[in-house]
Specification:
With about 325 residues, this protein is α+β, with helices and mostly antiparallel strands. About 25% of the residues lie in helices and about 30% in strands. Helix 3 runs parallel beside helix 5 and helix 5 runs parallel beside helix 6. The relative contact order is 0.15.
Amino acid sequence: MSAPATTRTETLVVTDVVKEYAGAGYVVRPLDGLSFTAHAGQLVVLLGPSGSGKSTLLSCLGGMLSPTSGSIRLGDVEVTGLSGRSLNDYRRASVGFVFQGFNLVPSLTALENVAMPLLVTRACPRREAMARAEERLVEVGLADRLDHRPGALSGGQQQRVAVARGLVTDPALLIADEPTANLDHVQAESVIRLLRELRAQGRIIVVSTHDARMVPIADQVVQMASHGAEPEAAEATVEHAAGEVVFRQNDHADLVYVIESGRVEVYRELADGGEESLVTLDQGKYFGELGALLGFPRSASVRAVTDVVLTALAPNEFRARMEQAQGPS
């Protein structure tokens, strides 16, 4: 596979990015102070489960969403400061998109699908657009599939067409949302190998995935959901005075808590700055299990109503206790 002679020198700098949504009156914060730097020629993997903010971050990087706060800079362009025509220009010229579902037009050939971004925006004459599309398809190993429509291509080949389309504008930044999600292991391996080879051109590639097979080829892995630090012992005792917050909504979840004494309140922080009380729990009850077990951020906040003594359990220890309590089936 031959790469273009030109290379890139831009650096991507993400600083303290926060993205908040108001959902049914409460606040959801899929991104909460995220920072990382990616240099030209690097492949960055955003690793985390569904709901951890991977797609939200890609949309912010691509200029399709604006962060609530924080900064995104690509080279000398402050992306978070763009609007109107300048933002459209950034999306067209600086970013290539590779979608999870391929998003190819069934009635068009591979060549026409790849040329589409240039034709729709009238970035160049049709002849030039088709020539550039052919170059990209050759680059991703599909020189013999130019005239094939998506229905005649395998899933891996369709994903390669999608990658070629993302590259056709020669962007500094290529972002890919779960590029191996719909592929079997053979097709996924070919796409992973392709992404690894594309780094040599000097562009930055940012890939969102929950697929651990992407990790070995990454120059940098950004954990979108903290696994947290499990207690050194199987359990740990934690004490909170009345009024103290045990954890807050949208915090990373790594522990389950059992109330040994006292009482806590589970409440939701609302978009208008208020609160909604959900439930009060006392001795013998537990809380925080779903976030810790599923790898989701906290969906509500918890504070001590009275002085409380809690047992903090790692998810695997909590699971073992629940299985023991249920007994043999």
